[in-house]
Every structure is written in structure tokens, then in C-alpha cells.
Amino acid sequence: MPKHSNTLEKLLAAHARKIDQLLQSTIAERAGGDTPKRLCDAMNYAATNGGKRLRPFLVSQTAAMLGRQDQGVLMAGAALECIHSYSLVHDDLPAMDNDDLRRGKPTTHKAYDEATAILVGDALQTLGFELLSDEIIHVDPAKRLILIQELAKASGAAGMVGGQLLDLAAEGRFDGARPVQSEPSIRAMQAMKTGALLRFACVAGAELADASPHDIDTMRQFGEIIGLAFQLADDILDRTGSAASLGKSAGKDEAAGKATLVDFLGLEQAKVHLDKQVKAAHAILDGYGSDADILKQTASFIAHRLS
Amino acid sequence: MPKHSNTLEKLLAAHARKIDQLLQSTIAERAGGDTPKRLCDAMNYAATNGGKRLRPFLVSQTAAMLGRQDQGVLMAGAALECIHSYSLVHDDLPAMDNDDLRRGKPTTHKAYDEATAILVGDALQTLGFELLSDEIIHVDPAKRLILIQELAKASGAAGMVGGQLLDLAAEGRFDGARPVQSEPSIRAMQAMKTGALLRFACVAGAELADASPHDIDTMRQFGEIIGLAFQLADDILDRTGSAASLGKSAGKDEAAGKATLVDFLGLEQAKVHLDKQVKAAHAILDGYGSDADILKQTASFIAHRLS
Q1: B96 lies in which domain range?
Q2: Domain-located, residue A1
Q3: What is the value of ipTM here, to two decimals?
Q4: Closest CB to A43 among B32, B87, B157
Q5: Which of A95, A107, A246, B295 has the fewest CB atoms inside 10 Å of its own CB, making it the most exposed?
Q6: Is B1 a member of any domain?
Q7: How many A-B residue pairs are in contact by the CB < 8 A criterion?
Q8: pLDDT in tens, A254-305
Q9: What is the per-residue DSSP string for B263-282?
Q10: Residue B58 sits in a domain of what CATH number?
Q11: Into how many domains does chain B fold?
């Protein structure tokens, strides 16, 4: 079974550099002469903040496994990263998670100010949808519209944004009422908040490569499972990780009075579950032979990152 | 020259009811079972707040003048209103304009809370792009993509969002530095902040009706001019209107230390300019005969609303 390796980390780093460069050049080009410099600078700051670019990497590797590798695939990944970045900027705001640091650097509202951060998030979301509508993404307009629709569902009220509100609700933030938390309710929140974009990344890669309905469905399942693994790994790290390795404060969920999956499963059982999910993710890709090696390693990386 | 009349106000009110109903049903349908009720409720609160729905009305009337009148046109208007509504919710936030009231009702962050308001704005933006990608908008996918691209340009960093940042900069909000204001700099800010969406409304109506490039260009010019008139009327109202008739605090720009066009033109000259703009807007539509009557009345309404 492919474990993630130094080779994978090198591939990830090289790909992240490409995405960063593409985001920088795209923000500058799309801004046009009228966009205030402060807004461009802050969008760049927020969008190129040293992330691993895992979601664009999944888009690229899925498309590559299914036969497409070009600038359009990278651009679709950049579009997805705009959406992910906007959500981080808004989630960090004082009225939301109130984080001063993100990956060891001041969050956008700390480096600039709250009003600028709100506008940066708004503009990055717009840019994400604008980029997906570009003809470089796919020659067939109908295919671009499928991606726009899927991304809207994954990131909007029924996906990422709805999940963030459920997460805040679990902290008892609204009217002091804290909803009863259970393993299913936590899984449902996580599936919306982080799972939906990871699944979209895999589906988008398959759509971009004009994959068959069967392959698209397989990648949807793969995306679903690595989403679960990503979230479970996060909860395990929140319990065991140091702030340095986590890139954010460990024990934060506990401090906020939020239950995590580890509370329901126990730490050992959570690790067993995680291993099962990685095996399931690998098994789903068995039909693709060695073409699936990098995606399998990526699944392992997601489960064992920073731990 | 058609002045706006009781008939126009009745048309506007009937159209606004249709848009409100469409927004309510669409928010409920698109949300799906997973969207938290609080988010749906707050999106409804923010999106159906008693506005005149001027932008969707312009979409509908432009499309009607050029030969299309159906549910798809209304849906495109609803999509545009989602974008307009999201911008109002975010602009009202404490870190932005810090407004407690909007059209006499508590702003979204007052009726709910800041975190919910941020997420409501985010989800309404997503919904706007999702709705434009729907096949009800236009049978040709390429046409839907044109609308998505135009809306992204009009509303993003090079349009509405960039304009809002310039407006905050004019208040000296960033690093205490207040940029020198001039008539051209105010016009440029206004063209981005409010002009771009009004122009988009007219262009979108023409695109939806499969208008000729000439007609689309004519409607772009019409939209440009009514955008100028809208902004000039706003500045005149800020100087002369009461808080009640304005629906917000009069004299707010002066209090914020912001110059307006009235400062550069003087009140009388500003009114002369406004009349000229209305005449120019009417003249642009002369080739369409009586089919253009409602749009001409709308231009008059925009210039003389609430005054």
C-alpha cells in the first residue's frame, strides 16, 4: 500500500509553487486598472499564505490519472483555492473564530484591518467563480457550468458556509443555546464545512478530464472518504498535536466546549477508524493500477499529516 | 418625455413582490435538508427586506423591451439581487459602515449577530452565481457564462467590492491616510461601487433577450448613464433629504468627512447635471419608440426618487 513519501511532499511543494504563481498573476490580471492596490495586495496576502494547496493538488492529480494535464486544470485548482482562501479569511475574523495567526503569520484582518479582510474574502469568492467560467477551464461551456454549479453547492449554504454556522452553533454562540452534539451531528457538520470542498476537488478533476460517469462517481466516493479522513485526522491532531505542528492552537475545540469525534470514539478507536478510511480510499482506486499511486499516497498524507 | 408615474410605481411594486417570492422559494429549495434553519431564515431576512428591486426591474424591463419576458428573466434578476443584498449585509457590518438600520428595520447583524451576517452575505453571493448557472436563465450555456463573467467583473475587486474599499479609504480609514478627493475620483469610486451593477442589469436584460451587439451596446450606455444619475441623486439626497425619506441618515457623507459630487458642483449645478443625465438616458432609447416608455420612466424615477 503506497505510504506518502518524500517524493509526494516534493510533488506537493512544486505544485503549490505553481498554484501560488498562478494566483498572483491572476489576481493582478483580473484586477484591472481600477482595483485599489490595497485590495490587490491583501488578496495576494490572503490567497498565497503558504498553504499546501491540497485541494488544487487533488484536482490536478485526479485529472492527471484520468488523462488531462494542462493549464486549465491548474486554473480550476486556483479557482477552488480562491474559495478555500476566502473562507479562511472570513472564519478568522473577530466575529467568527477570532484567530490572530494562520500558519504562523498574522491573519488578514491583523495584517490589514477587518473591513479590508471582509472585502478580500468577498472578492476572492467572486474571483473563484469568475475563473471557473473562463474558457481555459474546458472547451465545452456546459462542462464549465457543471463545475460552477457543483462548487456553488459545495461552498454555499448547503455546504461549507452552512457547516461553519453549525460549527459556531456547537460553541453555543447563538442565543446561548448549545445544540446536543452526537457523532452523527459532528460528522454532518464536518461533511459540510470541510468535506464538501475536498469531494468537489476530486469530482472536478474527473469532470475536467471528461471521465465516464462511472469514473466521476468513483472519484466522488474517493473524495467523500478522504474528506472523512481529513476531519478525523484534524480531531486527533486537536487532541494530540502541538500548536507548532498543527499550525494553530491545539485543544481549541475543547476550550470552546465543542465535542469532537475523539470524544465519542476515544483516541485509540479514532486512530483505528482513520486507518480503515485510508484503506478504503486506497481500495476504491485499485482499478486504476499504478496511475492511482499519487492519489493513494495523498490519501495517506491527509490521514497522517503533521502527526 | 415620460416622467415616472403612479403606474410605474405600481409596476415596480408588483415586480418587487414577484422577486421577493422567487427569492424566498429559491432560498428554501436550494438550501436542501442540511442547511441550518438559522442560516435560511437570516438569508431570507437579508434578501427580502423591502427593497424596490430596481436592479431586477431593469433586467426585466430591458429584456421585455427587446422581446423576452419569462421566468428565466426573473430568475436572473433574483440572482443579481442576491449579489446586491450580500453587499448590503456586509457593508452594514460594524467593521464597515456600522449601520443599525436598513430601510427602517434592524440590519442583519442586529437582527441576528455578526457571524451570522458574515455567513449570510457569503451564502447569498454563492447563491447569485449558482442561480445564473441554471438552465432556466438561457438555453445556451455560453450565454449563461457571459452573464456569470459580466457579473463577476461588475461585483468583484474591479467593480463593487473595489468601489466599497475606495469609499472606506475616502473616510481615511486605512492608516489614517485620506486620499485627495476630486470630482473624477468620486465618480470613479461611484462607478465601481454602484454603477457597475446597474449597468450589468441593463446588459444582462439585453443578453437574455438575445439582442444584437448594437442593442447590447446601447443598453450598456443606458446603464452607464442611469448609474451616474443614481449616484448624483444619492449625493443630492444626502445633502437635502431627511433621514425618513432617505431611509438612512442624511448628511452621513459630510459627517464621515467624505466629499460628494455636490461639494464640487454645488447643489444647483448638481441638479442641472442630473436633469441632463435623465435627458441623455431618454435620448439613447429614442430608437425603440413606445417600447422604451417604461425604461425611460425608470430613468426619471431613479433621478427623482424620494426627493
Answers
A1: 6-304
A2: no
A3: 0.95
A4: B157
A5: A246
A6: no
A7: 173
A8: 777 788 999 999 999 999 999 999 999 999 999 999 999 999 999 999 998 7
A9: HHH-HHHHHHHHHHHHHHHH
A10: 1.10.600.10
A11: 1
